[in-house]
Amino acid sequence: MKGLLWFYRIPVDDAEDIIQDSLMSYVFTSSPVNDPEAWLVGSLKNHCLMYWRKRRRNVYAAVDAALLDWLAQPMQPPQERADLLADLERLIDRLRPRYRNVLRLRFLLGYEPHEVAEKLGYSPASIGKITNRGIAALSRQLFLAGFGPGSDRPGPSRQPHRH
Questions:
Q1: Distance CA 70, CA 85 (A)
Q2: I need a labelling partner for 127 at 20 to 30 A (CA). Which of 23, 74, 121, 138 fits?
Q3: CA-CA distance, 76 to 61, in Å (whole number)?
């Protein structure tokens, strides 16, 4: 178990919780288990994968909220906001068409996720995954363009100036 936690790079603070989740899954399983050790190893692998998926979703949700909040904030002077939106538009243009369309509707036009799914013909269940992948790609573009920690450029990674 220790080797699996190391392999999946699970932080020490979270490792005990993941082991407990795996053991609880074993205790409450409704089907008979022929090889408990193999079952627990498989369960631990799944819990490690779910741990990182959940962390990624939390990061993407935070980026999603931060971008929407940033775009909603009035900035002074208006030309600065227009310049930043133009920069964002150029960065979105670099993305794959699928992500570009979703992010434009979501962030630049303010559509809700279910509206984006309907407008583009995606199922509402899949739009979250597409949006998260688009946000990840956009985040890489933002970082490469200098909108990152320590940047002197105002943008999504920094708090907007409030006047």
A1: 10
A2: 74
A3: 27
pTM of full prediction above 0.70:
no
Q: What is the CATH number of domain 73-144?
A: 1.10.10.10
12-33 residue pLDDT tens: 888 888 989 888 988 888 888 8
The most distant pair of C-alpha atoms in the chain lies apart, rounded to whole Å, by: 68
Q: Which amino acid is it at 133?
A: R
57-90 pLDDT tens trace: 666 666 666 666 665 566 556 677 677 778 778 8
Q: Which pair of structure tokens corresponds to residue 61?
A: 């949700």
Helices (H), the chain: 2-7, 12-27, 36-72, 78-93, 97-103, 113-120, 124-144
Amino acid found at 159: Q
